[in-house]
Each structure stands twice: as structure tokens, then as C-alpha cells.
Write a structure and sequence with these properties.
alpha+beta, two-stranded antiparallel ribbon, about 25% strand, elongated
């Protein structure tokens, strides 16, 4: 609980409650009875490297989550790998990768557009990490199969 007082004007008391699937912020005017403001948002836990963070999905107002930089980097490298393959060139981003790793990256460059958008917006499922994405065996070619395999469906 936190209290904020502005001398002679306003005194507020705020309480934040975290539960498994939501965050609730209650704000009360200490000088007035029964004057509450309660904001409640559904949340989810997202794996972020070795730890977890709480994410609030957007409400259609343009606010997006924090993108997982490891996943974003993986997508950048996957498109570089596809471009290198198509143009028969060498991309400096891929210089230190084995052929096997580059082949895995090329496969990721054909992810469904909405999956790519979700990753870039930080809205991927909580369990989707760069390591998991690279290690998915037999990733379906069809987009609906990809959504199911990666937890988007």
C-alpha cells in the first residue's frame, strides 16, 4: 500500500494486488468515504531469458508488450539466412553459424505472418523462447499447423 498526500488538497491510498492471472490497482481518496477507483487487467507470465515477467495484453489501443530480443534476433537472422540462400551470397550475420544452424534459421523465415507480428510485438505465448523455437522438430509448413505447434491456437 502506498499513500500520497498533497497538503490541504488530496490524500490518496493505493493498493496493488497481483494474482496468478491478473493485476488489480485500487485507489482511494482517504478524505472521502466510498470513493474508489479500481483498475483490473488480465495478465500472463512470459518467460524472459532465465526469469519471468508479467505481461498485460493490448486492449486494441496500440500499446504493445516488450518484444523478446532473443526471438527478434532469431527472426532477423532467419530472414538473413533465407536471403543468403536465395541470392547465393554470404551474410555477415551468419558468418559464425554452422550449415545446420543456418538451415534451421531458413526454416523459421517461413513462419506465419501473424506469428512474426506477435513475436515482434511481444505477444507470443509465454513458453515460446528462442531456444524452443529453434528446437521445434518438424515445424509444419502450413500456417495453422505452425500456430498449433507453437501455442498460438
Amino acid at each position: 500500500m502506498a499513500r500520497l498526500a498533497i497538503e490541504g488538497h488530496l490524500a490518496l491510498e493505493a493498493t496493488i494486488q497481483l494474482s496468478a492471472d491478473r493485476v488489480t490497482l485500487s485507489v482511494k481518496d482517504v478524505n472521502a468515504d466510498n470513493q474508489f477507483v479500481v483498475l483490473e487487467e488480465k495478465t500472463s507470465l512470459i518467460e524472459s531469458g532465465p526469469s519471468f515477467k508479467r505481461s498485460i495484453p493490448p486492449a486494441g489501443n496500440g500499446i504493445i508488450g516488450d518484444a523478446d530480443q532473443a526471438l527478434v534476433r532469431l527472426l532477423v537472422h532467419s530472414f538473413a539466412a533465407r536471403r543468403s540462400m536465395v541470392e547465393d551470397s554470404t551474410d555477415p550475420l551468419l558468418a559464425n553459424y554452422s550449415e545446420n544452424h543456418v538451415a534451421k534459421l531458413v526454416r523459421l523465415s517461413w513462419l506465419a505472418p501473424d506469428i512474426v507480428d506477435a513475436i515482434l510485438s511481444g505477444l507470443q505465448p509465454g513458453g515460446l523462447t528462442g531456444r524452443r523455437l529453434l528446437r521445434v522438430g518438424n515445424l509444419p509448413i502450413d500456417w495453422s499447423g505452425q500456430r498449433s505447434a507453437l501455442g498460438f491456437a
